[in-house]
Specification:
Radius of gyration: 34 Å
Strand content: under 5%
Distance between the termini: 125 Å
Shape: elongated
Order of helices and strands: HHHHHHHHHHHHHHHHHHH
Largest sheet: none
Helix content: 55-70%
Length: about 375
C-alpha cells in the first residue's frame, strides 16, 4: 500500500520539464496504416463522421487542437499508449473518480495562482527524482494534506509529532535549506485558495483508493511520468485545455473510447494521425472546412455523447458479421450415429465376353 501511495503522486501538475530528459519520439519504424485506416473509415460512415468531426475540431480550434495533437502523438507510441488507455478506462468505469478528476482540472484551469502553486510542488518532485519514493511520499502528503503539513514546515520540521510522511524531508532540508522554504511557500499559497478544499483536494486525497479500484491504472501512468516528465507536461496541458470546454471534452473522450473499442482502429488510428504532416496547414484547413460545410460547424453535436460502457460490455458501432451456418457433425471413425445407413448399390454386371470363332469352324459353315 505504501508503494501504491508513493507512486500515485507522480505527475499531478504541469511544469517546464528538465531539459536533460528528452521525450522519446513516437516510433518511426512502425507501419503507417494511412490507407487501411482511411479505407476502413470510408466503409463505415458513422465512424467516419466522428473522425471528420474530431479532426475538424482539432484543426479549427487551436486552444484544444494543439495540445490534442501533441497528445495523440504520444498515443502513437507503444511505450506510452497502454498506460494512458488503462487510466482512461479506469476513470470511465469509476464515475465518482471521473467527477473528482474533472473538478480538479476545472479548478486548475480557472485559477492560475492555485495551478502555479501546485505546479511548483511538482517541479520540486521532478527535480529531486534521485531521492526516490520516500521523497515523493512527502510531496504527496504536502499536496493532499497541506493544512496538516504547514505547522511542521513553519517549525522547520523541528519538534515532536512529525508525521512519518514528512521525515524524509529532514535530511534533504539539511543539505538544501532553500528547498524547505520553497515548499513552505507553495503550501501556504495553496491554502490561500478556497477552491482547493472543494475542487482539488477530493481528487488528491482519493488517488490511492482510485488506484486500487482501477487495478493500478494511475500507478502505471505515474511511473511513466516519473521516468519521462515531458510526457506529463503533454498530458497535463491537454487536460487543462479540455477543462475549458467540458462539452467538447466529453465528445473527444467518447471518440477516443470508440477508437479503443474498434480493433480496426485502435493503435493504427493514432499512427494514422501521427503520419499526417502537421505542417501541412492547407490540408488541415481543408479538413475543417469540409466538416463545417457538411455539419454547419455542429461538432461536437449539441447533445451529450452516448454512454460508453466498459470494454467487456461495449457494443461497437460496427455490427458484427452474421454467424456462419454450423458445419454438419461428423462421427468419429468407428462410431455410428444410430441412424440406419442406406444399402450400398450393387455394381452393374459386366456383359459376357463373346465366343471367339475359329478358322476351322468358319470353313465348315461356308458353302
Amino acid at each position: 500500500m505504501k508503494l501504491v501511495c508513493a507512486l500515485v503522486i507522480y505527475g499531478l501538475l504541469g511544469i517546464e520539464s528538465p531539459g536533460e530528459i528528452p521525450r522519446p519520439a513516437p516510433e518511426t519504424n512502425a507501419p503507417r496504416p494511412v490507407m487501411p485506416v482511411e479505407k476502413f473509415l470510408a466503409a463505415h460512415p458513422e465512424l467516419n463522421r466522428l473522425n471528420e468531426g474530431y479532426r475538424g475540431l482539432v484543426a479549427g480550434n487551436p486552444t484544444i487542437g494543439v495540445p490534442e495533437s501533441d497528445w495523440t502523438g504520444l498515443l502513437a507510441s507503444e511505450r506510452f499508449r497502454p498506460a494512458a488507455h488503462a487510466f482512461d478506462e479506469g476513470l470511465l468505469n469509476d464515475p465518482e473518480a471521473q467527477g473528482r478528476f474533472d473538478s480538479f482540472y476545472g479548478a486548475l484551469s480557472g485559477n492560475p495562482a492555485l495551478r502555479q502553486s501546485l505546479e511548483q510542488l511538482q517541479h520540486t518532485e521532478f527535480g529531486q527524482r534521485s531521492a526516490g519514493v520516500d521523497f515523493s511520499s512527502s510531496i504527496e502528503f504536502l499536496r493532499s494534506s497541506p493544512e496538516a503539513a504547514l505547522p511542521f514546515l513553519e517549525k522547520n520540521l523541528q519538534g515532536g509529532g512529525l508525521p512519518k510522511a514528512l521525515q524524509p524531508l529532514m535530511d534533504i532540508a539539511k543539505q538544501n535549506p532553500q528547498l524547505l522554504g520553497d515548499l513552505k511557500n507553495s503550501v501556504t499559497q495553496i491554502l490561500q485558495n478556497p477552491s482547493f478544499s472543494t475542487d482539488v483536494q477530493p481528487w488528491l486525497s482519493k488517488l490511492g483508493e482510485f488506484d486500487q479500484r482501477s487495478g493500478g491504472a494511475y500507478r502505471q501512468l505515474a511511473t511513466q511520468f516519473m521516468a519521462c516528465p515531458p510526457d506529463f507536461e503533454v498530458w497535463h496541458k491537454r487536460n487543462l485545455a479540455l477543462a475549458q470546454d467540458p462539452h467538447a471534452r466529453d465528445w473527444i473522450r467518447y471518440w477516443h473510447g470508440v477508437v479503443r473499442r474498434t480493433p480496426e482502429l485502435g493503435a493504427h488510428y493514432y499512427r494514422y494521425l501521427h503520419s499526417m504532416d502537421k505542417k501541412d496547414v492547407p490540408a488541415a484547413q481543408s479538413v475543417a472546412q469540409k466538416v463545417l460545410a457538411i455539419q454547419n460547424g455542429a461538432w461536437p453535436p449539441p447533445e451529450a455523447p452516448p454512454p460508453l460502457q466498459g470494454c467487456a460490455s461495449f457494443q461497437p458501432l460496427i455490427p458484427a458479421p452474421p454467424p456462419m451456418p454450423p458445419m454438419p457433425a461428423l462421427n468419429p471413425a468407428g462410431e455410428s450415429s444410430g441412424a440406419p445407413r442406406p444399402a450400398m448399390p450393387k455394381p452393374p454386371a459386366f456383359p459376357g465376353r463373346p465366343a471367339m470363332r475359329t478358322y476351322q469352324r468358319e470353313r465348315q459353315i461356308s458353302p
